[in-house]
Amino acid sequence: ADAAVAIVGAGPVGLYLLALLRRAGVDAVALERRRAPTAHPQAHFINTRSMELLRATLPGAAPALAAAAPPVEEWRQFAWGSRMLGGRTFAVADMIDVGGTVSAVSPTAPLHLAQHKFERLLLDAVAGGGAGEADRVRFGQEVVAIEEGQDGDDGAGVVLRTAAGSSLRARYVVGCDGAHSAVRRLAGVAFDPSLSVDYQALLNVHFTSRELGEAILAGDGDAMPPGMLYFLYNPSTVAVVVAHDVGRGEWVCQIPSFGGAADEAEAVDAVVQAIGRRPADLEVHSVRPWMMSTRIAKTYQSTRGRVLLAGDAAHHFPPAGGFGMNTGIQDAYNLAWKLTTALNAEAGGEGEGGAACDHLKALLASYTSERQPVAIEAAALSDKNYEKTLDCARSLGLDIRLAKIAEGISGVLPPDAQARAMKAAMRVGLLPTHALLEKGNYYGDACVAALNQRIKKGGGLPLIFPKYELGTRYRRGAFSPKDAAAPTPTAGGGAAASWGHGDMEFRSAVEVGCRMPHAVLRLEGKAAKDVACVSTVDLPAQLQASYRALNHPDEDCMLTAAPWAVLLHTEDASEALAQAIGELPLQRTNLALFATAAGHDGPVGGKSARCARASHRR
């Protein structure tokens, strides 16, 4: 084969998967249709669980991401108003304060970083693997055909053919090529129609203006305060502006599109109306139409098993809540170790038939059974969040359902007449916003008060979802017992670490199929200054790296990818961990504690390490 794994798509999911596979020693490449990395700041929120994975699996990633991201004080708020400059601010909400602190349950915190900047850091992580690693991302390679062979064929499992006429043979192919995935289509994987929803056609306008950012940070006049999202309503436009970086002046304006796509001039005018005036340095970089929708593939694996899907190729949903890219990053983490295990077993002759072959097929099939329910849950929550944004607009007297009705009626008209009719309907629909512009209007003030009351009661769009970010549980999958009961964090006495409140609260618990709880471990080497502090959350991924260094091929080593395995540096640390974890009220714990000798690299055992297993149960 030309490669063990061919990844189609070099967005954040494809690049992260490539980095994971290369660190595992897998011969992997990524093919990208674009000729260069994107400059459009699409997704922009990296949640706590994704940050945990990046911290644990890519050395230096977490500090590099933190250095590239704007400070949290610039994006912790959402704001509602008429215009960003010179208008009226209706409401402001702090979306980071959800009750408790993230540091109680995680070694990381979420970040706000535009996708194109995130991709560059992932490219650096791939290139930093050694000479020639940067060449593993091949731009300008559009895949147009896939030929998937039968198991046992002499050649590799899959042949990819590109628009340029070249071909590549691989044992496995992973489609990370976005919502309009060619890999998904070519592999014959369909969406589940029962989970498919079209919400709204939009125009995304990417623009820059440092002048706008400086005015907001300085609090000039009637400027709205710094925030991540601005929900703007005035007689000329309805828009959501995403502040990708207030200080550097990078923005995306999302404008609903009815009755056909607006042209670029109209889109730019809508941006100016949303801002309140035209900044002298305003520069529009792109105007892109986009349909906000939910789609989830029926399966994440082809019938023959060697083509898999991850990220938006497998699922996409409204951006409300920021689950899209994060779900994809977590897909990649789940899939990487399973592909590595399958490839190692095939190289050892274990994939040629019999029980071992069936075991590997079941392992790869568990990727769908574990990750698809997560996407379905994220889609449902995203739908709920999107409805919350519409409820906020209804508090201000605006109802998108009326625009949808007008759009349906105008659909019988010729295109030119349809566009004129929709513009007239929009002007009528936006009439209530006149009352919102100045304080003192009885109706307008009542609407603003209703909006603030809704937000106060939790009716605004949330940003942090502790239970959904950290509380994922694989009920059916590679390691989940068939008769497993739900984790019971209150069993055993004591107070579990928690984050959030109400139906979003996350409480630490230990159970097979759940994420490892956070406890800080102090790992000491032979020299007094040789000390590292790590989290138990870091250790499952590091244990995989340690076993690769030890070249340990047995089944137990493969199982250490489970989220309940940890690595310790000294035998005495076993008791320290038992005490740390014991502070949590656990229902059931089955922790494999490993002691390593000298010769370590950071907090992970090196090639000269020896492993001795003991067990601790509570």
From TrEMBL:
Gene Ontology biological-process entries: ubiquinone biosynthetic process
One GO cellular component term noted in the UniProt record for this chain: mitochondrion
Domain FAD-binding as annotated: residue spans: 3-378
Annotated signal sequence range: none
One GO molecular-function entry: oxidoreductase activity, acting on paired donors, with incorporation or reduction of molecular oxygen, NAD(P)H as one donor, and incorporation of one atom of oxygen
Entry keywords, A to Z: FAD, Flavoprotein
Superkingdom of this protein's organism: Eukaryota
Protein name: FAD-binding domain-containing protein
Species of origin: Phaeomonas parva
Taxonomic placement: Eukaryota, Sar, Stramenopiles, Ochrophyta, Pinguiophyceae
